Amino acid sequence: MGNLANVLQELRAERKQTQLQVEKLDQAIAVIESLNGTGTSQQATQPTRTVSAPSGVISASSRRRMALAQKARWAKIRKGSRPVAGTKTAISIPVKRKMSIASRRKIAAFQKARWARIKAQQKKAA
After folding, report:
1. Which residues contact 122 (CB under 8 A, 6 or more apart)?
2. What are the pLDDT digits (tens) for 36-75?
3. CA distance 10 to 16
């Protein structure tokens, strides 16, 4: 038993040294990537999507769970960004105003007089 304990202790020490070496290598890679301007070290640490079903098919129950999870994430985001009551938002639709018949007639008369002046000036110039 004493022999196995020694072997186990040596293996743990070797594992610890190997982990330190891997961490140093990761740091060196990160420094070189930051100098190069690439950020692949951050992308490599993110988990990748895996599909357990053959040919990439996702079951209906899995799709439903994913949809519910996404809705929950969006609800959490929206919960923190509610507009203050009484302020205008960009989403609100402005009320369309209607012009009275009298004001339409005034504008039409003004435009007719304006065009008459412009035509009169063009005749004088010609």
Report:
1. none
2. 776 555 555 666 666 555 566 888 999 999 999 999 999 9
3. 10
Q: Note whether residue 1 is domain-resident.
A: yes
| Start-to-end C-alpha separation, the chain | 120
Residues 41/30, Cβ–Cβ less than 8 Å: yes
97 domain-assigned:
no
Contacts of 59 (CB under 8 A, 6+ apart): 53
Q: How many helices (H) and strands (E) does the chain have?
A: 4, 0
pTM of the model: 0.29
Burial environment of residue 41 by CB neighbours within 10 A (0 to 12, 13 to 18, 19 or more): middle
- Buried b vs exposed e over 76-85: b needs ≥16 C-beta within 10 Å? eeeeeeeeee
5 in a domain, yes or no? yes
Domain tally, the chain: 1
**Residue span of the structural domain in which 7 resides:** 1-40
